[in-house]
């Protein structure tokens, strides 16, 4: 009987959780997948007010009812169409007028009026462009923090060492209180706009970088502190492929962390199965024990809403949604919400699957790294204890996948329910085996008949 231990661990995590943000995995939409594809009509110029308002309209009309609320504007909101970022005289990012002519506060208000939330984005460190376009002749600036005594040159090291996953920022020196003051001034601006979510990107150790210049742990802590000072509840999510060695730092400040590189293929669809959906079955495994209320393993965007756009088969789309759901990963859609197909809508709006995700008990594989994988988690939300079990076939041909009750800590007879089909399959003793198509899955709920 392993269930009580598991529950104690989960309750312990709730007590340790640093903040009230993201008690459950957040659900919403992010702009990046549509910015990252070469699909006609999309790409880097796609991020514009009218396109974002359209997402808000669709989410409010069809998806909000299922729990999707966050509309997250990703990279580029303060950049022109040549990707030159804009800043005010105090070094704070300002919306690009060609993309957001009425400002970010207008979009936030539009979302809030419809019962939704708005997210914004920044790369970690002090973006080089703050000092003007000629980096050999840097233009200093005054920070609009409370002391009134800080300039841009106080925020960085004298040698202007660089940081982040793209080497696009100067590393900030948090031994000088001006650095925190500057972060505070940006957080205050975002909170004036009534932002609900903030993604800090290119964070190291992680983002394919390590070493002291890429140690952005002080930056992450500074952003958490800055938002906490404002009194507004803002989810802080960090990206990408964070170094698990520093999980204690990530959990202390962030509500979620991208465990992997971008899911997007940077091709003419949003993703491909091999680039880069399927590796997440392996890459999430070391992170599973670290997830819990207010601290989620972020698998990146779910691109399952339109098969043509996604570049995936229906079986691949269902497996994608299933892995994210049972991993308690944040569920944020990357497709154009106004172009969801019928199958995509059924994947994104299955209430039983969403409630499994929102219960927040991440599943784990019985045996990782093999072609036929069985993932399971005890379902603490049910009156009668049950197990949520995903059976995945990652092979290139149809195969049998078998779930054995002994792996979940019980034996004997159990009721088996097919969650995606919404069908009771009957009583199975000891195990359940099923043929699963290439890259496909079954999601079952296993309820032991006897107490164990
Ligand atoms: C700014 O610095 C000056 C000179 O060091 C000092 O006199 C002043 O009190 C400082 N102002 C604030 C608001 O800290
Ligand atoms: C740092 O990065 C280098 C090059 O990618 C890698 O070989 C090394 O193992 C990394 N060190 C740590 C501590 O992650
Ligand atoms: C799915 O996306 C494709 C490509 O953008 C589009 O042509 C099609 O109309 C979309 N399907 C639906 C149902 O909107």
TrEMBL record:
Swiss-Prot/TrEMBL keywords: Disulfide bond, Glycosidase, Hydrolase, Signal
Give the catalysed reaction(s), semicolon-separated: Hydrolysis of terminal, non-reducing alpha-D-galactose residues in alpha-D-galactosides, including galactose oligosaccharides, galactomannans and galactolipids
A biological-process GO annotation:
carbohydrate metabolic process
Q: Fetch the SUPFAM superfamilies from UniProt.
A: (Trans)glycosidases, Glycosyl hydrolase domain
Signal peptide range: 1-19
Asked whether the keyword Hydrolase is assigned, the reply is yes
A GO term, aspect molecular function: alpha-galactosidase activity
Q: What is its EC number?
A: 3.2.1.-
Q: What class of enzyme is it?
A: hydrolase
Question: Which residue numbers delimit the Alpha galactosidase C-terminal domain?
Answer: 372-446
TM segment ranges? none
PANTHER family listed in its UniProt record: ALPHA-GALACTOSIDASE 2, ALPHA-GALACTOSIDASE/ALPHA-N-ACETYLGALACTOSAMINIDASE
Q: Record's family? A: Belongs to the glycosyl hydrolase 27 family.
Subunit field text: Homodimer.
Q: What is the designated name of this protein? A: Alpha-galactosidase
The organism of origin for this protein = Folsomia candida
């Amino acid at each position: 009987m392993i269930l009580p231990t598991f529950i104690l661990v989960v309750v312990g995590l709730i007590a340790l959780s640093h903040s009230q943000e993201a008690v459950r995995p957040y659900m919403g939409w992010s702009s990046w997948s549509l910015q990252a594809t070469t699909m006609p009509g999309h790409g880097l110029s796609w991020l514009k007010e009218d396109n974002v308002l359209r997402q808000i309209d669709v989410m409010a009309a069809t998806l909000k009812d299922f729990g999707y609320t966050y509309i997250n504007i990703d990279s580029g909101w303060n950049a022109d169409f040549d990707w030159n970022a804009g800043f005010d005289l105090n070094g704070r990012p300002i919306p690009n007028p060609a993309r957001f002519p009425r400002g970010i506060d207008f979009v936030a208000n539009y979302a809030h009026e419809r019962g939704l939330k708005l997210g914004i984005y920044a790369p970690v460190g002090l973006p080089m462009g703050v000092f003007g376009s000629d980096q050999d002749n840097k233009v200093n600036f005054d920070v609009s923090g409370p002391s009134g005594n800080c300039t841009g040159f106080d925020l960085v090291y004298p040698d202007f060492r660089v940081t982040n996953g793209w080497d696009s920022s100067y590393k900030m020196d948090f031994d000088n209180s001006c650095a925190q003051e500057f972060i505070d001034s940006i957080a205050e601006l975002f909170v004036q706009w009534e932002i609900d979510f903030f993604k800090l990107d290119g964070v190291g150790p992680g983002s394919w970088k390590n070493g002291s210049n890429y140690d952005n742990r002080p930056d992450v802590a500074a952003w958490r502190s800055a938002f906490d000072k404002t009194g507004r509840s803002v989810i802080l999510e960090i990206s990408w492929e964070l170094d698990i060695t520093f999980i204690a730092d990530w959990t202390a400040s962030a509500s979620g962390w991208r465990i992997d590189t971008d899911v997007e293929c940077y091709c003419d669809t949003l993703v491909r199965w091999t680039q880069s959906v399927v590796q997440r079955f392996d890459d999430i495994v070391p992170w599973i024990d670290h997830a819990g209320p207010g601290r989620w393993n972020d698998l990146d965007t779910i691109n399952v809403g339109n098969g043509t756009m996604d570049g995936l088969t229906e079986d691949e789309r269902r497996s994608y949604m299933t892995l994210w759901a049972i991993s308690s990963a944040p569920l944020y859609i990357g497709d154009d919400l106004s172009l969801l197909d019928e199958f995509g809508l059924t994947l994104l709006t299955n209430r039983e699957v969403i409630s499994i995700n929102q219960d927040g008990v991440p599943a784990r594989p019985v045996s990782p790294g093999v072609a036929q994988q069985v993932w399971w988690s005890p379902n603490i939300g049910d009156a009668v204890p049950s197990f949520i079990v995903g059976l995945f076939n990652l092979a290139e041909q149809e195969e049998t996948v078998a779930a054995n009750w002994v792996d979940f800590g019980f034996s004997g007879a159990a009721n088996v329910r097919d969650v995606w089909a919404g069908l009771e399959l009957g009583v199975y003793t000891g195990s359940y085996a099923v043929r699963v198509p290439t890259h496909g899955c079954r999601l079952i709920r296993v309820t032991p008949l006897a107490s164990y």
